[in-house]
């Protein structure tokens, strides 16, 4: 019998029997027929059809402000991120070589790693950058170390150097003296050499060999210079790095707007420079290229008073980066890292000044994240490249208003719903397996126009590990609107056990959601200690009832869940 037909039959049978069979403690089944959509979702998972490794490409995070790393809430969040991942998490941050006093500010950070004495002799000070890397390494995390930006003493246009940007100001105001090429390339080369040499001495050769390094950030926007200026900066930086540690892994170029024609020209010319051109630093042909990185961003907007997301630009950026990499033999198999992969472009732009960013506090962000990461895996399969990681440019903002609407994973030490999607991903292991949904938008539809149809995207991503399987299901739409729970019939085939223990993890308005609890408190900006404790508890990943033992019949398990709009569920099977 056709698998879809079988599942539909199971679905209607289960509507009558599931309440008695499983009980309402785990699943809610009492939904009226009149509320059901025209096309109920039917999901089929085949554990026998393994597709590819369930790579932890999600275990990468980043942020603009490096000095938040070792502050109170920064260290707390990094500990939580480390704990949720079964593999070391990679962390990327800007401004690791910027001159200043080490005090954090929005879209600003500094380490004072390089200054010069009165005679122009370099003075290296690794104290602050060490405190950043120490924080990672002590938690078993790895730097995705960004070589940049330009120290004040090396900048060709040092004044003004320190910017004082705030939300609502023009974005170009941040492009001060740190964004210029060096006035002395030999000193720039030696700076990187001494930095990497120091890291090897401090952390050990084996540890630093496990890191990734990349030069600059978005040179098509964050550099006052030409492509050739960037290539020269890159050549001298990688020369210094490889002199200190020949086995270090380095690349670039973390281009912005990857799908745009200009960005594609940058990327193609960068690859050609690294593989064919004369190296500015060595005079030899070619430059080190151990990884290729680029950025991918979506584009939300306001429609009336409603936020409308748009994942299509983000997915097109990813597809373009993968396509370019796959077109060169030198880049087809090296690690590809989406250096920033987000619903839009400015983490520090809160919803007060940018109302289209109002999606960030609640379940819109978490369901968008689930839906888009699944498509990243699809694109990696399509292009056959070495997809290593996708950096979620989302961290925390220290000492800022509660739930201000920054693109962050936590606010004042309280986790937001989006962080719980990553906790779900951390429970998926082994290999991805074939999983289909009658209500899942195709990859082409998502890349063309995101999720704008009359029905929501009820999608699925499934994995199979040793004595375990996991099925992630989401109910997503671009329009930021809540909706009633929809019934979903799930069939899991080829289960190699007579029984399983089923745990359902859930993110929705009543589970794993500190934001809804905060609003019910009256949205306090000075919550009491008791309220903070309640918010911290609400910010953790929660289950729908207790785990239950279920019998498997003929290696098949039929389940039913009701999932509200913007909800995400993870069905974890252990056997």
UniProtKB/TrEMBL annotation:
<dbReference type="GO" id="GO:0005975">
    <property type="term" value="P:carbohydrate metabolic process"/>
</dbReference>
<protein>
    <submittedName>
        <fullName>Xylan 1,4-beta-xylosidase</fullName>
    </submittedName>
</protein>
<dbReference type="Pfam" id="PF01229">
    <property type="entry name" value="Glyco_hydro_39"/>
</dbReference>
<comment type="similarity">
    <text>Belongs to the glycosyl hydrolase 39 family.</text>
</comment>
<dbReference type="InterPro" id="IPR017853">
    <property type="entry name" value="GH"/>
</dbReference>
<keyword id="KW-0378">Hydrolase</keyword>
<feature type="active site" description="Proton donor">
    <location>
        <position position="218"/>
    </location>
</feature>
<dbReference type="GO" id="GO:0004553">
    <property type="term" value="F:hydrolase activity, hydrolyzing O-glycosyl compounds"/>
</dbReference>
<keyword id="KW-0326">Glycosidase</keyword>
<dbReference type="InterPro" id="IPR051923">
    <property type="entry name" value="Glycosyl_Hydrolase_39"/>
</dbReference>
<feature type="domain" description="Glycosyl hydrolases family 39 N-terminal catalytic">
    <location>
        <begin position="43"/>
        <end position="538"/>
    </location>
</feature>
<dbReference type="InterPro" id="IPR049166">
    <property type="entry name" value="GH39_cat"/>
</dbReference>
<dbReference type="InterPro" id="IPR000514">
    <property type="entry name" value="Glyco_hydro_39"/>
</dbReference>
């Amino acid at each position: 019998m056709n698998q879809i037909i079988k599942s539909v039959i199971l679905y209607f049978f289960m509507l009558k029997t599931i309440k008695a069979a499983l009980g309402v403690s785990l699943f809610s089944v009492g939904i009226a027929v009149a509320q059901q959509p025209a096309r109920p979702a039917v999901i089929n998972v085949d554990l026998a059809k393994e597709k590819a490794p369930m790579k932890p490409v999600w275990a990468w995070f980043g942020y603009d402000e490096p000095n938040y790393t070792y502050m109170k809430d920064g260290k707390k969040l990094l500990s939580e991120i480390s704990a949720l991942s079964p593999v070391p998490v990679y962390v990327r941050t800007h401004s690791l070589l910027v001159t200043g006093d080490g005090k954090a500010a929005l879209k600003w950070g500094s380490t004072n790693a390089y200054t010069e004495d009165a005679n122009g002799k370099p003075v290296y000070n690794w104290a602050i950058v060490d405190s950043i890397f120490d924080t990672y390494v002590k938690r078993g995390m790895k730097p995705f170390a960004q070589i940049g930006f330009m120290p004040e003493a090396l900048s060709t246009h040092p004044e003004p150097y320190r910017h004082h940007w705030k939300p609502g100001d023009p974005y170009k105001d941040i492009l001060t003296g740190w964004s210029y090429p060096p006035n002395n390339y030999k000193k720039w080369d030696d700076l990187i050499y001494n930095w990497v040499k120091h890291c090897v001495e401090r952390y050990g050769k084996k540890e630093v060999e496990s890191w990734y390094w990349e030069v600059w950030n978005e040179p098509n926007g964050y550099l006052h210079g030409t492509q050739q200026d960037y290539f020269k900066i890159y050549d001298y930086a990688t020369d210094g790095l490889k002199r200190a540690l020949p086995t270090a892994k380095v690349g670039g170029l973390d281009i912005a707007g990857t799908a745009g024609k200009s960005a594609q020209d940058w990327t193609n010319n960068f690859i050609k420079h690294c593989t064919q051109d004369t190296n500015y630093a060595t005079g030899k042909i070619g430059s080190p290229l151990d990884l290729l990185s680029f950025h991918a961003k979506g584009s939300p907007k306001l429609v009336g008073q409603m936020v409308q997301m748009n994942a299509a630009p983000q997915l097109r950026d990813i597809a373009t980066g993968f396509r370019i990499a796959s077109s060169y033999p030198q880049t087809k198999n090296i690690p590809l890292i989406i250096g920033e992969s987000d619903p839009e472009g400015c983490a520090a732009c809160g919803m007060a000044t940018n109302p289209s960013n109002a999606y960030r506090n609640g379940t819109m962000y978490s369901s968008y994240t689930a839906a888009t990461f699944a498509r990243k895996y699809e694109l990696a399969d399509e292009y056959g490249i070495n997809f290593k990681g996708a950096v979620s440019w989302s961290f925390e903002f220290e000492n800022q208003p509660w739930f201000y609407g920054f693109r962050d994973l936590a606010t004042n030490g309280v986790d937001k719903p989006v962080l719980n999607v990553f906790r779900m991903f951390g429970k998926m292991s082994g290999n991805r397996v074939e999983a289909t949904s009658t209500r899942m938008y195709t990859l082409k539809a998502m890349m063309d126009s995101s999720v704008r149809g009359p029905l929501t995207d009820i999608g699925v991503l499934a994995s199979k590990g040793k004595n375990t399987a996991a099925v992630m299901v989401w109910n997503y739409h671009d329009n930021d609107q809540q909706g009633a729970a929809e019934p979903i019939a799930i069939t899991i085939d080829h289960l190699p056990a007579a029984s399983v223990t089923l745990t359902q993890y859930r993110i929705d308005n009543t589970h794993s959601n500190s934001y809804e609890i905060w609003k019910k408190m009256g949205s306090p900006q000075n919550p009491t200690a008791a309220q903070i404790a309640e918010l911290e508890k609400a910010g953790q990943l929660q289950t729908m009832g207790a785990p239950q033992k279920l019998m498997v019949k003929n290696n098949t398990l039929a389940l039913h869940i009701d999932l509200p709009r913007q909800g995400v569920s993870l069905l974890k099977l252990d056997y």
